[in-house]
From TrEMBL:
This is Protein translocase subunit SecE. GO terms for molecular function: protein transmembrane transporter activity. One of its GO terms (biological process) is protein transport by the Sec complex. The chain crosses the membrane at residues 57-77, 89-108, 139-157. The keyword Transmembrane helix applies. Gene3D superfamilies: Preprotein translocase secy subunit (1.20.5.1030). The gene is secE. Keywords: Cell membrane, Membrane, Protein transport, Translocation, Transmembrane, Transmembrane helix, Transport. Component of the Sec protein translocase complex. Heterotrimer consisting of SecY, SecE and SecG subunits. The heterotrimers can form oligomers, although 1 heterotrimer is thought to be able to translocate proteins. Interacts with the ribosome. Interacts with SecDF, and other proteins may be involved. Interacts with SecA. It comes from Moraxella nonliquefaciens.
Amino acid sequence: MSDNKNNSQQNDTKGDLETRLADAKATAKSLLNKRKAVVVSEENVVDVATTRSGVDIALWLIAILALISSTLISTYLPRYWAPATSSINQLIITATLVILAVICLAFTHQGQAFKVLLKDAGIELRRVTWPTKNETFKYTWQVIVVMIIVGLIVWLLDNLFNYLLGFILH
């Protein structure tokens, strides 16, 4: 009988462990699925950037017209509007048109993708291992020495070719 009790306790413990293992596998699988969803959404950024719509085309046209207009403010606007003769007014109008163009571009599909790109670039910059002060000093001197050597080689080749060309032409 005691053997039966031990066997049943072992079976209960084994069943409990199997249940916990199944739960852990299910949790891990759901986490992996969430990560895959994030990866898929990042891949969709490329799809978003290549998507064209009527709104995007209109926003691009407005942005292009605003940027072209901002370059022509000082030349043409004072002829038709007296307050535009002031440099400050021209600067304000130019800045307003440039800001309008940037806002229009930010609302396009390509602008949304660019924002994601900037966010990802910021994340990558945090991962960069920057050189120490001593390494920077050492590498700077190495670059300067190599530049001087290459400069001397180019100068010598230039003089040699000038001499040979002069010798051939005279």
